[in-house]
Amino acid sequence: MSFKLNHLSYGVRLFASGLAVVALIGLGLATSTPSAPTNAAGNKYIGADKCKSCHASETSGNPHGKWLETTHAKAFEKLGSDDAKKIGKEKGAEDPQKADACLKCHVTAFGVPAAELKAKPEQLKNVQCEACHGPGENHMKARFAAAAAAGDNPDTSKRQVVPEGEITVKVEPKDCKVCHHDQSPTFKPFCFHERLEKIAHYDPRSGHKIEKPLTACPCDDDCGCKKGDCAKLPKKQ
Ligand code: HEC
Ligand code: HEC
Ligand code: HEC
Ligand code: HEC
């Protein structure tokens, strides 16, 4: 696997995944309403403060509050530390908070064209929700519309059903490894399941939880794919 992603190819990757979603939606149109919201092209990054307005309640597991406790929420500030300046100096980045070579993994939506950003750059500092879940504008609009339709006393004991494609739900190892790879000056091997435990923010009402590793090799998981283990496992399809 190669992780020589620079900021250009990161943009291309987001664009390409947008196209894939467009293709899926094209297929889905015959069966769903044409106005179904999507996570496709035209969707924009809105910033974590917007997510906070709906994703900070205890009934939902407070994903925004959990995120604030992770270092992702302070990744930009970290670039102002003495450690960061030292690393920056070695890499020719005198001020890491202004250097693309550092920002590309310490902010959200780096390299995404301005036309796809609803939020201002200062609202996209740090590794926010949309770094993992993709742009959220269409989702926000759809949920506001659903809330308006539900009236004054919505039943919050159950989760609303969000149509597939409205926002990215499934986040896989490869989505983390856009940043967690060996071009990071402080790279540490990335064991997905261990790391996921540190950032998890499941909704108690969803019944979702961390799926434990490893059913086939090669896997995307540096901790699971030890040579000895791999020999015992079936080959990936
Ligand atoms: C946009 C880049 C980016 C993406 C995508 C990303 N991370 Fe990170 N991650 C970082 C940065 C940068 C830090 C360090 C922040 C700091 O120290 O201030 C970090 C730190 C972490 C830490 C904390 C390490 C520690 O011991 O404090 C964990 C755990 C982690 N990431 C897990 C994940 C997982 C799991 C995913 C995918 C579901 C993921 N990350 C996706 C950039 C990213
Ligand atoms: C390819 C993505 C990437 C780039 C480029 C990058 N970082 Fe990071 N940075 C990370 C990730 C991911 C982490 C979290 C480390 C971990 O837990 O594995 C991190 C963590 C850090 C930390 C916290 C120390 C630590 O060990 O957790 C500092 C300081 C830092 N980066 C500074 C910088 C500076 C300065 C630059 C630019 C010269 C830079 N980074 C460029 C991804 C990146
Ligand atoms: C570093 C990556 C990352 C960041 C940042 C992140 N998430 Fe997530 N999120 C995930 C992963 C991974 C899952 C679990 C997906 C799975 O198990 O398939 C998830 C799941 C969710 C779920 C569904 C929970 C459930 O029980 O099904 C919600 C809602 C959610 N995130 C909202 C947010 C919000 C809001 C933010 C910002 C405040 C945020 N996330 C930030 C990676 C991230
Ligand atoms: C207007 C309110 C609102 C806003 C703003 C909002 N969401 Fe949501 N989101 C919801 C609701 C409602 C659900 C359905 C689950 C529930 O009932 O809590 C949901 C579900 C999700 C899910 C899980 C979808 C699934 O199928 O399980 C993710 C991931 C998510 N939101 C991420 C985000 C992110 C990231 C942002 C900001 C970019 C955001 N949301 C902004 C209301 C909102």
Explain how this protein is built.
- There is one protein chain.
- With 237 residues, the chain is mainly alpha-helical.
- It has helices at 7-28, 48-52, 63-68, 75-78, 82-90, 100-106, 129-133, 137-150, 173-176, 192-199, 227-232.
- The protein has a single domain, classed as Flavocytochrome C3, Chain A, domain 2, CATH 1.10.1130.
- Helix content is 38%, strand content 0%.
- The longest helix is centred in the N-terminal third of the chain and has 22 residues, at 7-28.
- The model is unreliable at 1-38 (pLDDT under 50).
- It binds heme C (4 copies).
- Residues 48, 51, 55, 63-64, 67, 72, 127, 129, 131-133, 169-171, 196, 199, 201-203, 206, 208 line the site of one heme C.
Describe this structure in a few short sentences:
The protein has 237 residues and is mostly helical. The chain is 38% helix and 0% strand.
Structural class by secondary-structure content: mainly alpha
CATH architecture: Orthogonal Bundle
Determine the mean pLDDT: 79
Spans of at least 5 consecutive residues whose pLDDT stays below 50 are 1-38
The main sheet comes to:
none
Please report the first level of CATH classification, the CATH class.
Answer: Mainly Alpha
The proportion of residues in beta strands is: under 5%
Question: Helix fraction?
Answer: 25-40%
Shape: globular
**What order do the helices and strands follow?**
HHHHHHHHHHH
Please give the domain count: 1
| Ligand identities | heme C
* End-to-end C-alpha gap: 17 Å
The radius of gyration is 19 Å
